[in-house]
Every structure is written in structure tokens, then in C-alpha cells.
């Protein structure tokens, strides 16, 4: 993967169009380029693919014009069928990824977005389709502010108990509503409750999505107290870690308050809070 491909992935099409060249500079920070790791593909990784870019020095790529913003793809990207989800990311520097599941929820998601905007960092939101349907403006805001929106099914079922057809419907319907509101189909999928099976990997791949789990579970859904959530993030923080929190599904005010405390601490500790980049396109 080359740096400009990474950059392409960091910015949504909508954001790129809005922000233009200014976004290139804003995103041109070492450590922003994380790739997912944690498992081996079933078949060998493809070579560089049809797009080949020369490697650029860090100082040079900022000057490279944005490329790759063609018309929206009609068909999903082809991805490998995994056996396990990615659990962490790798990249230059102390990268860490914050993920928020089950939303969007108008009671909590706007506050989380406000905090992320205050510190100018990007995060991932694994949304449920039925929540998106009621809160489309929040997903549009995620797109505008450069966040990555992933697929967390339509209604948050335990997929391992569903038929293949039901699993596909849960995933595909969510892809559709994300595309409608976010402007792109999701590139990432996360199974509710972390309950993966072969069908979820196969269907996710068919729909062009990579499976992402997490490294640290804040267990914020148990409302353990804001201080406990902060402590879990601070304690677990390490390069490549993916943090799981929730912005919906119950009272998430502790999650909102915890983010306000641990995000500046992570940044002060030298972490690059970023979003993962797909290895293969
Ligand atoms: Zn969930």
C-alpha cells in the first residue's frame, strides 16, 4: 500500500470534495497511516493491484494531488474471506483507533462527534442500520467530519443464530442505508457481540467489507463509571490498539464523559488517534 492510497482511504469522498487540497495537509501527519493486522488471509495477498504508485517520501507525498476519486463504484470491492477478524492495527508511530458501536443516537453521538472535532481526530462508528434510518443527519455529519462508518448490522442480532439469508439481509440493508447517508458503502464490518462465524466472514467479503474486532473492550455498556472507562483506556493504550466503546444502546453518558477525559490524555502521551486503512482494495 502506498501513502497516497492510504490517504485516499482516510477521507471520504464527500469530505475530500468539500475540503479539497486543505485536507491533504491536515491528514499528512506521520502515524495516520495504519493497516490492520491480526490474522492471515486464506489465500495469498494480491500484488499491488491495478493501481501502482511510486513510493513517496513523507515530505513529498503532501504535494501529490489527490487521485482515485472516480465515480462511485457500482460493485463492492472484492476482499479476501477471512477466518478471524482483525484485532488491532499497525502503522508508523503510536497509532490507536477509537471505535463507537450501535449508534447513531441523538442523545450521545453528537457529543462524541463534538469532542472528536475539538481535538481534530477521526474515529470509527459501527452503526446499526435501524439507527441510521432515524438519524441520517448524524451519519452525514460523520462523513463531513472525516470519520469512518462501518456496518454493525441492521438490528444488532446474534448473527450466529441466523440463517445465511437473514445474515445477508442484515448486512446488505445496512450497507444500503450507509451508502445513502454517508456517501459510500462501508468498507468495514463488525459482528454484534463479537459473534463471528464462517457465514459472517463470507458474506462480509461478498459485500466488500473487512471484519474488524477490537483490542480493548471498555465494557462501557455496563456503566461501570466514567473513571473506570478512562482507566481501562489509559491502561490498555498501546501502539496498534483498537478501543471499543458505544454511543448507543442504553445510557452512554459515561462513555461521552470518559472520551472527553481520555482523548486529550492519549494525545498528550503522543498517540495518533486514527482510523485503519484497508490492506487490499
Ligand atoms: Zn454492538
TrEMBL record:
InterPro entries: Glyco_hydro/deAcase_b/a-brl, NODB_dom, Polysacc_deacetylase_ArnD, TAT_signal. One of its GO terms (biological process) is carbohydrate metabolic process. Gene3D superfamilies: Glycoside hydrolase/deacetylase. One of its GO terms (molecular function) is metal ion binding. CDD domains: CE4_NodB_like_6s_7s. Keywords: Hydrolase, Metal-binding. GO terms for cellular component: membrane. It comes from the Bacteria. Residues 94-274 form the NodB homology domain. This is Oligosaccharide deacetylase. It comes from Streptomyces regalis.
Amino acid at each position: 500500500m502506498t501513502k497516497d492510497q492510504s490517504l485516499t482511504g482516510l477521507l471520504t469522498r464527500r469530505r475530500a470534495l468539500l475540503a479539497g487540497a486543505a485536507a491533504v495537509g491536515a491528514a499528512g501527519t506521520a502515524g495516520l497511516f495504519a493497516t490492520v493486522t491480526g490474522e492471515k488471509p486464506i489465500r495469498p495477498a494480491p500484488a499491488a493491484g491495478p493501481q501502482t504508485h511510486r513510493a513517496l517520501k513523507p515530505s513529498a507525498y503532501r504535494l501529490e494531488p489527490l487521485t482515485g476519486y472516480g465515480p462511485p463504484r457500482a460493485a463492492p470491492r472484492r476482499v479476501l474471506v477471512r477466518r478471524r477478524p482483525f484485532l488491532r492495527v499497525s502503522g508508523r508511530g503510536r497509532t490507536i483507533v477509537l471505535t463507537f458501536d450501535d449508534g447513531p443516537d441523538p442523545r450521545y453521538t453528537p457529543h462524541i462527534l463534538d469532542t472528536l472535532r475539538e481535538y481534530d481526530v477521526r474515529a470509527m462508528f459501527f452503526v446499526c442500520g435501524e439507527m441510521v434510518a432515524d438519524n441520517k443527519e448524524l451519519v452525514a455529519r460523520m462523513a463531513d467530519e472525516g470519520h469512518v462508518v462501518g456496518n454493525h448490522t441492521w438490528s444488532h442480532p446474534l448473527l450466529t443464530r441466523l440463517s445465511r439469508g437473514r445474515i445477508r439481509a442484515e448486512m446488505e440493508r445496512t450497507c444500503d442505508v450507509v451508502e445513502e447517508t454517508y456517501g459510500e458503502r462501508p468498507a468495514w464490518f463488525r459482528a454484534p457481540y463479537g459473534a463471528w462465524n464462517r457465514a459472517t466472514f463470507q458474506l462480509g467479503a461478498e459485500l466488500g467489507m473487512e471484519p474488524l474486532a477490537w483490542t480493548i473492550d471498555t465494557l462501557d455498556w455496563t456503566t461501570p463509571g466514567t473513571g473506570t472507562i478512562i482507566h481501562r483506556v489509559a491502561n490498555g493504550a498501546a501502539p496498534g490498539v483498537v478501543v471499543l466503546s458505544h454511543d448507543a444502546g442504553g445510557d452512554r453518558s459515561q462513555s461521552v464523559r470518559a472520551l472527553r477525559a481520555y482523548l486529550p490524555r492519549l494525545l498528550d502521551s503522543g498517540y495518533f488517534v486514527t482510523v485503519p486503512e484497508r490492506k487490499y482494495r
